Each structure stands twice: as C-alpha cells, then as structure tokens.
Amino acid sequence: PEKKVQTKREWYDQKGRLKATFFYEKHKLINGIWVPSSMSVRNAEDKFAARTIYGEPNVNLGLNESIFAVE
C-alpha cells in the first residue's frame, strides 16, 4: 500500500466491554509522517461523543531527547 495509517481505535474496560471507539480521519502528509487532521469519538451505544480537529501539527522538530527523560 502507498501509506499505512491508523483509522480506528477501540477502548475496552477491564471486563472486556466496549467503552468507546475513536475514528482518525482526513490524514495529511506532514514532514514525511501521515497525521490525522481530525478525530471523532462514539460511545459504546454508538452515539457521537466528541470531535477534535487538529490545526497545523508539527512533527520531527528535532527536540532534545532529554526532555523525555523520566527522573
């Protein structure tokens, strides 16, 4: 395939019951990385719960690895 992107994620509780489904949509190629430009969430009853729209995300900015260190 030309690209591989995550389009869906399911969230389950500890008893294996579906809690929500996340849909990643409208992927854009940014600095060599496919990034979703929006994400929507539906609850276990398949009712719309939320939508997030990402403005202009940045990737591969050359951040210093030390800022991710656990102390």
Total strands: 4
Query: Shape, please?
Result: extended
Based on CA atoms alone, the radius of gyration comes out at: 16 Å
Global structural class:
mainly beta
* Helical residue percent band: under 10%
Number of helices: 0
- CA distance, first residue to last residue: 41 Å
Assess the beta-strand content as a share of residues.
Answer: over 45%
Report low-confidence residues grouped into runs of 5 or more. none
Q: Which whole number gives the mean pLDDT?
A: 93
Q: Give a quick account of the main beta sheet: strands, pairing sense, barrel closure.
A: 4 strands, antiparallel
Attribute tags:
71 residues, 4-stranded antiparallel sheet, single chain, mainly beta
Describe the model.
The chain is mostly beta strands. About 0% of the residues lie in helices and about 50% in strands. The chain contains no helices and 4 strands. The protein has strands at about 10, 20-30, 35-45, 50-55.
Please summarize what this structure is:
0% of the residues lie in helices and 49% in strands. It has 71 residues and is mostly beta strands.
Topology:
Elements: E1 8-12, E2 18-30, E3 33-43, E4 48-53
Antiparallel strand pairs: 1-2, 2-3, 3-4
